[in-house]
Amino acid sequence: MNIKSINYSLLTPGQLYNLSDGTISLAKSAQLPEGPLATFLSNVESCHQDFSRGFQRDDKDPYTEEKALRDSERDEAFLAFRGYVEACTHRRDASVSEPAEEILEVIRKYGWSSWNLGYQKQTALHANMIEELKQEHAEQMDAIGATTPWFEELEQAQEAFTAVKISSVSNIPDRVTLTETRKPLEQALRNFYAMVDLMAQSEENETLNQLIRDLNQLITETMAIARAAQTRRGKEEEEVEPGQN
Fold first, then answer.
1. Residue 2 placed within a domain
2. What is the pLDDT of residues 206-231, one digit of tens each?
């Protein structure tokens, strides 16, 4: 028995909040023993608290939507750059594959999944990665043809996000938003669920099995609500007035 998969992209902030809150309640009711699982749960609680504070502040930040857009563009630019470099490592031509391996190590150094982190950590890691690639690996970048347009697009996306972030901080100090705290909460939930599955598979424990059943019920209900809402939104978008395409 495993915990069901979750399509987090379908969840509204409120639905993600309820999923996280329900997960914490179920886990605490299960009276889990001290150990790795308790540590992962503590991380979920911490991220949940940050996300909760965002509910009180997010609607007051006029930069929320623009930051989310620039962050999404930066994520895509990073994934495109990473994907291109990874593809180059499979080239038969050693003059391409070998420098690509060196660049890939730099990407791994600063986080293969850094795009999935919160704004602050992602911005810092990307800034350091970009600087190292420019200063210490320019020759390797040119060798695989990664400078244009792949790296340039990533650098431009990083600069665009940073500019919006600076404007936001300058005008609305000490701001914590839903968008900024969402990724860490999603990752904390993924890690907790994975640890529950791992421990349940390694030992026969009815407490863990019951927790998995309870979590699956919560996930089923949450995803049903999310999919129903998505269906409604889809129908509303299809109801276009005559003459409008």
1. no
2. 889 999 999 999 999 999 998 987 77
Predicted confidence (pLDDT) per residue in 20-68, tens digit: 999 999 999 988 777 889 999 999 999 999 998 876 655 556 777 888 8
Let me know if residue 105 belongs to a domain. yes
The pTM of the full predicted model, rounded to 2 decimals, is: 0.53
Alpha-helix runs per DSSP H in the chain: 13-29, 36-57, 64-88, 94-110, 119-136, 138-143, 152-171, 178-202, 206-238
Mean predicted confidence (pLDDT) in 130-147 = 93
pLDDT at residue 55, rounded to an integer: 67
For residue 113, the 8-state DSSP code is T
Q: How far apart are CA 40 and CA 238, in angstroms?
A: 42
Rounded to a whole number, what is the distance in angstroms from the first to the last CA of the chain? Answer: 47
CA distance 241 to 151: 43
Same domain, 95 and 161: yes
Per the document, the length of the chain is: 245
Domain range enclosing 133: 64-171
Distance CA 43, CA 45 (A): 5
Q: What are phi and psi of 173, to 5 degrees?
A: -70, 160
CB 225 within 8 Å of CB 15: yes
Q: Which two tokens stand for residue 220?
A: 């089923």
Helix (H, G, I), strand (E, B) or coil at 34: coil
For residue 114, CA distances in Å to 72, 74, 125, 205, 240 come to: 13, 11, 7, 35, 40
* Claim to verify: residue 156 and residue 183 sit in the same structural domain: no
d(CA 181, CA 121): 11
